User: Fold this.
Amino acid sequence: MMASCRMRVRRVPPGDLPLRQVVEFRPHGGWSLLIDTLSIGLTPEDVSQRLFTRSQVAATPMTGWGPSGEAYLRLVFANEPVERLRDLGTRFDAALN
Assistant:
């Protein structure tokens, strides 16, 4: 049986890379966000390292998960409070600029 959730999609201005859209919902468990980092000219490994060292954000490169995962970085959320996620875009900007 699938858990019910509320979902809202919000478009982010193009300058707020790498997140072009944010999906907000309240799952009864965890969920993942995959980000295509090659589209911004960086490998998933590079983005993972920058996020961790510059912004204290842990994200996993999908390298080794098969050919379809080679371009992606994975963020995992498990019942994260919205307050804790509000500055995620700012933290991405700090890590990538």
